[in-house]
Amino acid sequence: MAIGDLPFTCFNGMEMFLTPPPLRGVYRARVVSARALPDGQAVRFEGVDDDATAFSLVGKTCLVSVSVLPDAGIDADDSDIIDCPVWDTRQGDIGVVTAVLSNGAQDILVVVNDANHETLIPFVDEFVHEKDDRGRITVSLPNGLFDLND
């Protein structure tokens, strides 16, 4: 699951950074309370006690530390995917992750098998599905991707 696919959920005490930051005013805020609305959440921030300050926050983007987000599953920045076995839903075992590359558009898993055959797998939800409790990464490769470097 990509971070952008996570629901926006605030909780009491969560610290946020608001962008774009103003020259003066609130750019960092702590959630005091939050409640669900049909189209999002109503959030009250510590120190935002008047309408003018509250309206100045309308339309701001809220940034939070990745450490407070729920586990989104497998993450290409996660160093523990190196040396993980990779299992394709059609071909079975196709090797282990030896590196993660970036081409600017998305990350790419470098998977090498026992015969030193290298497969480059775009790190997108369509191909990379999960990492199980044993550390095995499950993928569904499109036809021809595994044989591309033969």
Give the topology string: H per helix, E per strand: EEEHEEEEEEE
Shape: elongated
Beta strands, count: 10
Question: What strand line-up does the widest sheet have?
Answer: 8-7-6-5-10-9
- Percentage of β-strand residues: 35-45%
Task: Output the number of helix runs.
Answer: 1
Radius of gyration, whole Å: 21 Å
Fraction of helical residues: under 10%
Helix/strand-derived category reads: mainly beta
List the helices and strands and how they pair.
Elements: E1 15-19, E2 28-37, E3 40-45, H1 51-56, E4 61-63, E5 85-88, E6 92-102, E7 107-112, E8 118-122, E9 128-131, E10 137-139
Give a verbal description of the structure:
This protein is mainly beta. The chain is 4% helix and 38% strand. It contains one helix and ten strands; from the N terminus they run βββαβββββββ. It has one helix at 51-56; strands at residues 15-19, 28-37, 40-45, 61-63, 85-88, 92-102, 107-112, 118-122, 128-131, 137-139. The strands form two sheets. The protein has a six-stranded mixed beta sheet with strand order 8-7-6-5-10-9, with no helix packed on it. A four-stranded antiparallel beta sheet has the order 3-2-1-4, with no helix packed on it. Residues 1-6 have low confidence and may be disordered.
